[in-house]
Design brief:
Residues 76-217 form the Protection of telomeres protein 1 C-terminal insertion domain. The chain contains six helices and 14 strands. It is an alpha+beta fold. The protein has two domains: 28-62 and 221-241, no CATH class; 81-179 and 187-214, no CATH class. Strand 9 and strand 10 (160-163) form a beta hairpin. The chain starts with a helix and ends with a strand. The model has no long low-confidence stretch (mean pLDDT 86).
């Protein structure tokens, strides 16, 4: 548990970074007055660290524009786009997917549609199948990910099925939600997926799905900032890793 570990470190008189045993300890003041890049070994106290909650350390990073975004949680997860437009039956049961529609049992009586992508005119085993869902809630989608390999939230548009706004995940697989960069993505119609369905053995890898749908995928990264002090000055150390 990194949080409890850091709290223990704060209670100690010093924190010793034991890497680079061949180097002598260098004062932080000297480091701050030096030009990068250099390699030092320090002896310092951990004064503060951010963020305070471990889950806040996880961000979404775009390797193309180098932006960092917060991971949507709870009510921040936007799936409203799937309910704005009623499912259009014109786009049901196309050449590469079968569609099933029903009405939810809640007070809103939502129209929910699942489109099952076919391969070689047949449905694959559920664990190998990609499905698309209109009008579903996040809870309903999570249930589907336990049975099917991939779940893509969609909505009906004038010219066919489309992805939701990129505030929502463009793909759910297992227990992972995949997001796309709003700035770097140029979303394509869902029918672009038919090229993957036509492959001999479609793998439905998230990277391939993102590519054919014109999505620049965001990657989950771990980010923290530590402020170290040794009496000669403060030094901010940043941790950034996938």
């Amino acid at each position: 548990d990194i949080e409890s570990h850091l709290q223990r470190c704060q209670q100690l008189p010093v924190t010793v970074l034991t890497d680079h045993q061949d180097l002598k300890n260098t004062d932080l003041k000297t480091i701050l007055n030096s030009t990068a890049p250099q390699q030092y070994r320090i002896r310092a106290k951990l004064r503060t660290y951010k963020p305070q909650k471990l889950y806040q350390s996880v961000k979404l990073h775009c390797s193309k524009c180098n932006s960092l975004q917060e991971v949507p949680i709870g009510n921040d997860l936007s799936l409203q786009g799937s309910a704005v437009t009623a499912p259009n039956t014109v786009f049901h049961n196309m050449s590469w997917y079968d569609s099933v529609m029903w009405t939810s049992e809640d007070q809103k009586e939502r129209k929910i549609v699942i489109h099952f992508v076919r391969h070689d005119e047949l449905l694959q085993h559920p664990k190998d199948t990609l499905i698309m869902i209109e009008g579903g809630t996040l809870k309903e989608m999570w249930k589907l990910t336990k049975r099917f390999k991939c779940v893509i939230p969609v909505r009906s548009a004038e010219d066919g099925l489309q992805l939701l706004d990129l505030s929502a995940p463009f793909l759910l697989q297992g227990n992972v939600k995949y997001y796309g960069c709003k700035q770097c993505s140029t979303p394509k119609p869902i029918k672009s997926l038919s090229s993957l369905a036509a492959e001999q053995r479609p793998s439905w890898e998230p990277s391939e799905i993102a590519q054919v749908l014109g999505i620049e995928p965001l990657q989950y990264v771990f980010v923290m900032r530590f402020t170290l002090v040794d009496g000669t000055g403060p030094l901010n150390a940043y941790l950034f890793d996938y």
